[in-house]
Specification:
mainly alpha; DMT family transporter; AA-Vitamin_Transporters; EamA_dom
């Protein structure tokens, strides 16, 4: 733990709340017929709206941001917007279980980017985990291609979404060395929402002509998986080590698959289940030994 003060609620309960919250994301998306880019836009705009009352506390920090900081904040936001567009789009074509499992490859793409851009190396067991995870993803794609080319296309979108969010995370690692998580999150979310706003304008999507259930889903996407999911994980980094919080990424595919089974009547084949287990085991192996290796630096 990074903070010696005892916390009134067991931290594992808060972590579990975060995992359940992000697991609901794909379910909410499936419950709306609105374009995914519109859902993503309002999800981020509403999240920013909830954050506004607190942003003034960081005004002195915001005034010190350089042109370079604003450039990389914008780039990180564009990549986050692209991630939501691709990943949420994948749920229109492939299963919840497959989409969330493939997006769990994110830390492996972060490793590849860290090596290519920052020359950061890792140990052999992490590399083994990476190859196992990639094998699992390939098996998922191969199985879906056998089911339908549409499902395979959804897997590709999820894979591209994982790459986009990994690049977003790499930029975030640099920016968070010089600014608070709140400032970073607020302006990245705002940039991502605005980029999706422009995308929706270009495609001519309606901004207001949606049923009340859709508006409810826009708001709940901001509250549940974003505030009680991603922002909660960022807050937990103050009290828990990064390895434990990083492992939470493995809970989403399992939680989302179970929720999809009960709420969306989605079923998975034996091959998909085996491939998903292989992928998640590879990601677990990678995170476990990559974090252990970095703790020695």
């Amino acid at each position: 733990m990074n903070n010696s003060k005892p916390f009134p609620i067991p931290l594992w309960i808060i972590l579990l709340i975060g995992i359940i919250a992000i697991s609901f994301s794909s379910i909410f998306i499936r419950w709306s017929d609105a374009p995914v880019s519109v859902m993503a836009m309002y999800r981020l705009y509403f999240t920013n709206l909830f954050m506004i009352p607190f942003v003034m506390k960081y005004w002195s920090e915001i005034k010190t941001l350089s042109k370079s900081d604003w450039f990389y904040l914008s780039l990180s936001g564009l990549l986050l917007g692209l991630h939501f567009l691709l990943w949420m789009g994948s749920l229109r074509f492939t299963s919840v279980a497959n989409s969330t499992a493939i997006v769990a490859l994110e830390p492996i793409f972060v490793l590849i980017g860290s090596f290519l851009f920052f020359k950061i190396r890792t140990n052999i067991l992490s590399v083994v985990g990476m190859f196992i995870a990639v094998l699992g993803a390939a098996l998922i794609g191969w199985g879906d291609f056998g089911v339908s080319s549409e499902a395979f296309f959804g897997d590709i979108l999820a894979l591209l979404g994982a790459i986009a969010v990994a690049l977003h995370m790499l930029i975030g690692k640099l920016l968070l060395r010089k600014m608070s998580n709140y400032v970073y999150s607020f302006f990245v979310f705002l940039t991502a929402a605005f980029s999706l706003h422009i995308y929706n304008l270009i495609l001519g999507y309606s901004f207001f002509n949606y049923a009340s259930i859709d508006w409810g889903i826009f708001i709940i996407l901001a509250i549940v998986p974003t505030v009680f999911g991603h922002l909660l994980f960022n807050w937990l980094l103050k009290y828990m080590n990064a390895t434990t919080v990083s492992m939470s990424i493995l809970g989403e595919p399992l939680g989302a698959a179970l929720l999809a089974y009960f709420l969306l009547n989605e079923h998975i084949t034996i091959q998909q289940a085996i491939a998903g287990v292989i992928l998640l085991f590879g990601v677990w192996l990678f995170i476990k030994f990559d974090e252990k290796d970095r703790s020695k630096i």
